[in-house]
Description:
It is a single chain. With 556 residues, the protein is an alpha/beta fold. The chain folds into 3 domains: 4-127 and 251-427, Rossmann fold, CATH 3.40.50; 130-247, Domain 2, N(10)-formyltetrahydrofolate synthetase; 444-526, Formyltetrahydrofolate synthetase, domain 3 (Roll), CATH 3.10.410. It has 18 helices and 25 strands. The protein is globular. It starts with a helix and ends with a strand.
Amino acid sequence: MKSDIEIAHDARMLPIDEIGSMIGLDRKDLVCCGDYKAKIELSSLSRFGEKVDAPLVLVTSTNPTSAGEGKTTTSVGLAQALNRLGKKAIVTLREPSLGPVFGIKGGAAGGGYSQVLPMEDINLHFTGDMHAVTAAHNLLAAMLDNRIHRRNPLGIDINAVVYRRAVDMNDRVLRNIVIGLGGRSTGVPREDGYDITAASEIMATLGLSRDYKDLKERISRIVVAYDQNDNPVTAGDLNAQGAMCALLRDALKPNLVQTLENTPAIVHTGPFGNIAHGTNSILATTAALKLGEIVVTEAGFGADLGAEKFLNIVCRVGDFYPRACVLVVSARALKMHGGAGKSQLSRKDLDAIKRGICNLEKHAENLTDFGLSPIVALNLFTSDSPEEVKLILDHCGSLGLKAVVSEAWGRGGEGALELAEAVLERCARKAPIPRPVYAREAPIKEKIEQIAKKIYGADGVDYEGNSSSLIARYEGMGYGHSFVCVAKTQYSLSHDPSLLGRPRNWRLAVRHVRLSAGADFIIPVTGDIMTMPGLPRVPAAERIDCDEFGRISGLS
């Protein structure tokens, strides 16, 4: 089998205006970034305003292993399969962050014969959106420190600055830093830190904005610090929202590309699912719902993170809801949840699967409680034995779940035809009624506890340090009706990555609570989750290379 990047190099891409024409976009609707990438002009979408929305299909998964379990590959393969069945399908995905690309994954554009192209561009600089978000984020940080340096007319308490800087790379040494050293002319010394761009408030805000007016209003509400009287200081107080919106002007436009089989793909914004809401932009999804006949979208990490946030936050902001849901599972993930070590995941182990399949059961229960009847897609790996496959499919059948094998990685759309047929059958049924886990008007702690108990299976929530006082402060500031976006490890239903399977008799530990006023959510930070990841012992960057002809290798 060829590597992902070799498969991508062999692919025949169509000019991007041809891809646009497949979904009703004219050349004037596109801002082309070379031959195979384009920005979609926001003004062009008004032509499709009266069109009935296409059915939306959500792809999520069980709690993954560190390498991921193939949600993106399954999403792309499913969209390709739907096109093979005569449906004008569009897949909408997030933009990869350079942190995971050079850290663990080595790429995040799908895999095998279910990829989005051009693969190197999407995984690296793409259309510059990540850089624009980083620049806008750090402009606000610079304007804040400049105001403090210039005699501090707003009376900002330098010990109460809550807005950190951002960079799109895993770099643990930047988590906590000291700035302003070197004398009076270089600014006021204070403690600071960096978050990775995909976890930044600007990224979350961009992904949830509906237009330029909405984006600028959201940015103006971002709380950056508190003054000496404990009053919030916002980006609007710094008059930063206009310049930040200017930097984000093009980044707000969704990106149009294609899959390996020339299926249209809209790839836009990249919020992390274990910290932010973990889905592509509201604009990308709403555009696809008007342009396509069926839309496939992916939520980050397991259903306890990306899917929960998609259904509780994104769908309510975007005013849409899935008609069908696909729950991706792999034999190796179930083996890990059953106690098998990472080095043992390629070995046949029916007992480990039997012990770990409770993780699948809990995710299926959660999706059912949201009003969705998930279709289980067993993402086939070459190491999977027929006995393991049969065990998983039979168990799903005993639970009343529709389950199919997906070979999207090895066979592209052809390998996902059975999944596509199951999705179409589900979409033909009566539309599900949305069932959010919590009411927006509920107190913040009640919302956190509803997620902890109903989605994670916790017995309750423990608020550590000043978490309770921060929640009281945010409610006092008028943010009690904000959404809740939990920052939590992706590897477990709990906040502890070592608690695999379906943990019982535990309580969720909230150690800090952050306000993301621009995105309109409260972020309870649980366990040891970090908003700035570090590189692993052997980062993917060590195998990525560029030869004397400019050919890149090592991306996957």
